[in-house]
Amino acid sequence: MDEFLWGVIGTGNIAEAFAEDLHLAKNAKHRISAVLSREMSTAREFAEKFKAPDSFDDLEQFAAHSQVNAVYIATPHPMHFEEAQVCLKHKLPVLCEKPMGISKRQVAEMFETAKQYNTFLMEAMWTRFLPSIGMVQEMLQNEAIGELRHINASLSFLAPREEGSRYFEPSLGGGSLLDLGIYPVFLSQLLMGKPTNIHSSIKRSEKGIDENCAMLLQFGADKYAMLESSLITQTPNTATITGTSGQIIITNPWNEKPPSIVYEKYHGVKCEEPVQWEGRGLQFEVEEVYDCLRQGKISSEKMSPEFSLNLIETMDTIRHQHSIRYPFE
Amino acid sequence: MDEFLWGVIGTGNIAEAFAEDLHLAKNAKHRISAVLSREMSTAREFAEKFKAPDSFDDLEQFAAHSQVNAVYIATPHPMHFEEAQVCLKHKLPVLCEKPMGISKRQVAEMFETAKQYNTFLMEAMWTRFLPSIGMVQEMLQNEAIGELRHINASLSFLAPREEGSRYFEPSLGGGSLLDLGIYPVFLSQLLMGKPTNIHSSIKRSEKGIDENCAMLLQFGADKYAMLESSLITQTPNTATITGTSGQIIITNPWNEKPPSIVYEKYHGVKCEEPVQWEGRGLQFEVEEVYDCLRQGKISSEKMSPEFSLNLIETMDTIRHQHSIRYPFE
What we know:
The structure is a homodimer of 329-residue chains.
Chain A: E1 3-9, H1 13-21, E2 29-36, H2 40-49, E3 54-56, H3 59-65, E4 70-73, H4 80-89, E5 94-96, H5 104-116, E6 121-123, H6 131-141, E7 148-156, H7 176-192, E8 197-204, E9 210-219, E10 223-230, E11 239-243, E12 246-250, E13 260-265, E14 270-274, H8 283-294, H9 305-321
Parallel strand pairs in A: 1-2, 1-4, 2-3, 4-5, 5-6, 7-10
Antiparallel strand pairs in A: 7-11, 8-9, 9-10, 11-12, 12-13, 13-14
């Protein structure tokens, strides 16, 4: 089996989760060979923990000298743009945490660079590749709920209010929409396409980010999605996909590893199917990157540039509806 | 104890429920003394079932000759306006099923007439008077969930598609919003006031009514309500009231007699309190009418003209957003 070497930029929670799930990817022998952090000591600590030979504290050095097959960018979102640009220009394939950039302008430029350097780039929307989402798509294809009519999905996290918390800090790309809201928006666009109409309501913090965000998206004449993200209140964190003859509920936490998927036919059968896989589930996006690269692709069809551009466009629209601007925009 | 005589206009399901709950109202000995229906045989059948002495098949006759203390209007909503106008002009106090009228223009005129004839008029929003709603209001007053942030409520009913079904028939005031959506809109306005911004999405039927309706209402800078009504899909039919420190869930069916109210403090206590009362719960609005009349009022403070006008204004706005017009408008 091929050995596939990853460079990891960032050493936070999601980078750890990625490193822990990596060995579960089945299409190659994936391992981490280089780590980049602002602090060399942090990079070395992470590298040691996951048996990576190389540590870096400089982006250009990392891009020029790390011997990796692909890079996983796991830093806070305001940093993605520059990191991806530098890696792509060194022809390093990139799997970039979501949101890929903080605006459509950024994301479009990133995909332009990928094209120009003929190098792979994909948004790390790991939920896209979870078996639970595949189950739902299959049920919809089999018309298990008739015609799709609405999706109700939410994601909340009661974020700590500590000073400097990235969740509430504009300079760190804070706000509920980019951090959490991207998941329900992703799901609605995966199952319904690009929204034709976007309405939203937010609670603005004193520093000017969205502490919560309620969205009503319309998809053509007969479908809608009611979506929520929140850093300050609790939401169900389920996803309910409703059709003319039944509904599917992905239980809490719907975007990660939910205990089960509930399927209900109106006036009929009700089933609850347990969901299970090893690890947290980041291995599935890892497999996608490897499969795409092996086929010489510079983008994924399952998580395509067009999809990522639509996703950030929706979030741009919502932010603009409430004049939320980041300092680095 | 006083005897209080009711005239009932209409003999459908809700009229039956009213008649069955009437004896449960505790502030007087309430009974039905007159029934009006388009068909005399139907009126007589209903009158016999509920031991009412008088039956009518003519509105003017009913208003002029029935010996009643108040009238309950329980016909389909397009008929409310004329029936209420005639009763009020005969100085008969009126409890009128919701929606009181099909437009703000109608409802405003009805309250004008009530004022002109110094006669009581109230919208029969029975949910307003349920002990479950009182429990929630008390919890909010006691700041059980901190500052209120959002309400999520829905109401759906998989309506039969039979030919002539009033649910889908424009000439009978069909559509999900006026029939079901009025409940979640009512709840949001009861707890949050008048919406400052209204967004909505509907699925329009071939005949031009809303088969479902999704609403995102904003209330000032920091509150919103996500509401749904549907005749064609299933929704949770719960009401979740969410604040900065916890949430309250009125279980399904939240607008009637729910099994329980769930209260949850973030990172803390979770309680489930059973809800129970005799009958369906229409007796509580009956008590309100009697109490108001005994005090010489021509309107209720708990379900005021202003509240009813705001309610229908919101629904007018939503209908106009989608150019839904009824043939009799």
